[in-house]
């Protein structure tokens, strides 16, 4: 079933969903099951699986020269999605990125997903490779998520890259996109970012999942701004509990967000790691309850492997 159909069916009730990362190469599917098994009692209708582009590492050879090697640290998104659907009977949402894919490879990936009866995708540009500094597309790949959305939408209308294909099979993908309550870090301002979000919706995107945030007002303001800009699709808040001291710097650096003073103070004052964890859990419960009260369609938790914490929060909220 499509993600947006779950929202319609819920009829105003707030749903819960989770996002998992593929294990590091060499890891097993059991790592994903260990995260999801304890969370399935909360009945998520869908689970997202992230996608990670290949990155480079530099290895020093005996000669002293450094060799640049491309590695994909977390392969397996499509297989994990199929496995999740098979084990739990829920829908899986693979993240589909522009980075590392030619248009042809994207088309073939979408055909695989369609054959696997996976009818939801989150269409993203994808993170830049660490050593590139900025996002670099494949020579025949997409530069922005909007181009990927357009390609998926074209296939939903039976249009393939090869113009000779007539009456092509129409896929049936529900398309999610990313949204940024605190603005995408590259966008010169929020209006610019919203303009492109609106264009992605006009190109065929059906719903938005937001970047994590720790101040609910940012989400409420973002939803208001989207509505004013004419973006009327469901907007799902993305949530992650902040439970460790290093995250005070790491989360703003990685995800370009601000932390509210009250949360910062409480984490700084907490006496030990367990006390900090409790602060983060309470904060996330407070955020979740308010978002639920105010009618968010779904609370989407970035699990990042921290299943016990997510469980403690979900138990208090659902
Ligand atoms: P885009 O929509 O392409 O936007 C990128 C920037 O360009 C924005 O500043 C936008 O305003 C601007 N822009 C958009 N279109 C145009 C245009 N045509 N011309 C000029 N400017 C334009 N990354 C991964 O690698 N794997 C994942 O699995 C993953 N999952 C994510 C899930 C969520 C919910 C979120 C919020 C992010 C995720 N990311 C993931 C990170 C994401 O790929 C990055 O934030 C990336 O930098 C931007 O992706 P986007 O789809 O928003 O890009």
Structure notes:
- The protein has 318 residues and is an alpha/beta fold.
- The chain has a single domain, classed as TIM Barrel (Alpha-Beta Barrel).
- The protein has helices spanning 3-10, 30-36, 77-88, 103-115, 145-156, 190-202, 216-228, 247-255, 261-269, 273-293, 307-317; strands at 15-20, 46-49, 55-60, 66-71, 91-97, 120-124, 174-179, 207-212, 235-239, 298-302.
- The strands form two sheets. It has an eight-stranded parallel barrel, surrounded by six helices. A two-stranded antiparallel sheet has the order 3-4.
- α4 packs across α5 (145-156).
- The chain is globular and about 65 Å long.
- The mean pLDDT is 96.
- Flavin-adenine dinucleotide binds at residues 50-53, 95, 97, 124-127, 144-146, 178, 184, 186-187, 192-193, 196, 209, 211, 238.
Mean pLDDT: 96
Q: Summarize the biggest pleated sheet.
A: 8 strands, parallel, barrel
The small molecules bound here are: flavin-adenine dinucleotide
Rg over CA atoms: 20 Å
Query: Regions with pLDDT < 50 over 5+ consecutive residues?
Result: none
CATH architecture call: Alpha-Beta Barrel
Structural class: alpha/beta
């Amino acid at each position: 079933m499509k993600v947006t159909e779950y929202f319609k069916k819920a009829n105003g009730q707030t749903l819960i969903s989770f996002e998992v990362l593929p294990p590091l190469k060499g890891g097993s599917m059991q790592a994903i099951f260990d995260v999801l098994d304890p969370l399935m009692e909360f009945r998520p209708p869908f689970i997202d699986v992230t996608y990670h582009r290949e990155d480079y590492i530099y290895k020093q050879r005996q000669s002293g020269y450094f060799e640049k090697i491309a590695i994909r640290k977390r392969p397996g998104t499509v297989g994990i999605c199929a496995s999740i659907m098979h084990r739990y009977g829920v829908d899986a949402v693979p993240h589909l990125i522009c980075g590392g894919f030619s248009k042809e490879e994207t088309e073939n990936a979408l055909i695989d997903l369609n054959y696997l009866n996976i009818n939801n995708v989150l269409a993203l540009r994808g993170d830049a490779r660490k050593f590139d500094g900025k996002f670099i597309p494949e020579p025949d790949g997409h530069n922005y998520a909007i181009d990927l959305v357009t390609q998926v939408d074209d296939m939903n209308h039976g249009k393939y890259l090869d113009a000779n294909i007539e009456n092509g099979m129409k896929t049936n993908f529900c398309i999610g996109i990313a949204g940024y309550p605190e603005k995408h870090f590259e966008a010169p301002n929020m209006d610019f970012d919203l303009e492109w979000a609106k264009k992605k919706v006009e190109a065929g995107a059906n719903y938005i999942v937001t970047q994590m945030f720790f101040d609910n007002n940012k989400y409420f303001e973002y939803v208001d701004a989207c509505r004013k800009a004419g973006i009327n699709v469901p907007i799902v808040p993305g949530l992650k509990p902040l439970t460790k001291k290093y995250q005070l710097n790491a989360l703003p650096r990685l995800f370009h967000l601000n932390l509210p003073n009250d949360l910062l103070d409480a984490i700084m004052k907490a006496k030990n790691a367990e006390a900090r964890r409790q602060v983060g859990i309470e904060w996330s419960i407070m955020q979740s309850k308010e978002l639920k009260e105010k009618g968010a369609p779904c609370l989407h938790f970035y699990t990042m492997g921290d299943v016990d914490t997510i469980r403690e929060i979900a138990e208090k909220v659902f």
